[in-house]
């Protein structure tokens, strides 16, 4: 993957080493899968090579959280922007139905123990519908790289979340969503 990305960018190992900056030998070891690049190096490769899915692939293959939560990159569907947007409209409609039903199902319930077997099965069903929508959104983000610097959009979004105080930065305390996410991993 790394060698292909470098070659597609038209760079020799020597040129790539200059841009990254790491030594040629390290690039060779990464390309021959003898070592795994550090996250910062993989992210820089993403920019230098202009292969914008490289960091997503790295996250899926190398990061413990990414391995658990990243989706497979779709390779057997029409990935034209219009096809993705059409699919989004369909999935969003189904997801809205799911949100409405989940609101009814989960009212006054704190967890699995508060649900019947049938309710849990329906929650599972609607959860899958929501993941379908999320998958389409992730696919669209991949295609957005052809039009925009999505990394910059994400940075701006994160800055907005900090401004709006969705993220608590004082005393290095993680925000509520992070605590919720961490709790779900335990």
TrEMBL record:
Q: Give GO MF terms, alphabetically.
A: DNA binding
Instruction: Give the matching Gene3D superfamilies.
Output: lambda repressor-like DNA-binding domains (1.10.260.40)
Residue intervals passing through the bilayer: none
Q: Which Pfam families match?
A: HTH_3
Location of the HTH cro/C1-type domain: 5-52
Q: What SUPFAM superfamilies does this protein map onto?
A: lambda repressor-like DNA-binding domains
In Swiss-Prot or TrEMBL terms, this protein is called: HTH cro/C1-type domain-containing protein
Q: What is the lineage of its organism?
A: Bacteria, Bacillati, Bacillota, Clostridia, Eubacteriales
């Amino acid at each position: 993957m790394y060698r292909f990305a470098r070659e597609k960018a038209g760079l020799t190992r020597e040129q790539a080493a200059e841009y990254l900056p790491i030594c040629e030998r390290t690039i060779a070891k990464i390309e021959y899968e003898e070592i795994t690049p550090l996250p910062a190096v993989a992210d820089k490769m993403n920019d230098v090579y202009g292969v914008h899915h490289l960091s997503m692939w790295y996250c899926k293959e190398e990061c413990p959280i990414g391995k658990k939560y990243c989706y497979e990159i779709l390779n057997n569907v029409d990935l034209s922007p219009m096809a993705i947007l059409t699919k989004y409209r369909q999935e969003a409609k189904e997801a809205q139905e799911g949100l409405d039903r989940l609101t009814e199902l989960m009212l006054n319930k704190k967890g699995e123990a508060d649900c019947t077997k049938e309710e849990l099965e329906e929650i599972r069903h609607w959860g899958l519908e929501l993941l379908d929508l999320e998958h389409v959104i992730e696919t669209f983000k991949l295609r957005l790289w052809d039009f925009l610097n999505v990394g910059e959009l994400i940075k701006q979004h994160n800055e907005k979340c900090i401004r709006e105080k969705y993220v608590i930065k004082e005393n290095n305390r993680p925000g509520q969503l992070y605590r919720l996410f961490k709790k779900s991993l335990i």
